[in-house]
Batch of 2 targets.
Target 1
Amino acid sequence: MQRLDLQELVRPWKEAIEAPPARDRVWLHGDLHPRNVLVQDGALAGLIDWGDVTAGDVATDLACAWMLFAYARARTLFLEAYAPPEQVQARAAGWAVHFASGLIDSGEPRHVQIGLSAMRRLAGAEE
């Protein structure tokens, strides 16, 4: 496995922190990662584990882009379809760094792998 250069994560983290905070609160799933997304025949079939449902910054759930999509083109299409303002996308990348860190720290092997993959994507290293 390729080692991750954590310096590559400074940019998305810094841009997230410098982005203006969300002004609107929306309903969030709060825990969108691959183990909570059900896919059937290549299409979204459902979401499970709604225990973290809350209201907050839409960027929180948009962080899933780096956890769900292994290829940059897929992430681009996802974000283009949603069309978040630049500051929302910056905050989403910051949330992705945060969530990936938590998944890695969990010690649960499947979560660790999701977190490491997301970190690589955030750092610009495609799998």
Target 2
Amino acid sequence: MKIKVFGKKNCAKCETTKNKLNHFIKKNNCRNSATLEFYDMDTIDGCAEGAYHDVLKIPTTLIEKEDEVLARWEGEVPKSDEFKPHFE
């Protein structure tokens, strides 16, 4: 499972999103089954990946399994009770 966070380095919501998801992965022993990838929208690579996923707001968070998007949040920090079911 992949968690993709699209944002900017100086964005408080983006940092909160990354920290919250990293904490969840560590707390629930998901390190072997889930990876967190951050795409900086101020870089060419980040913008390219963001364009591929139609990212218009930051932060945008995607949960993917086998290249299928299971959940998506745009412009907000995901709530734990919204993303937790995707890991059970």
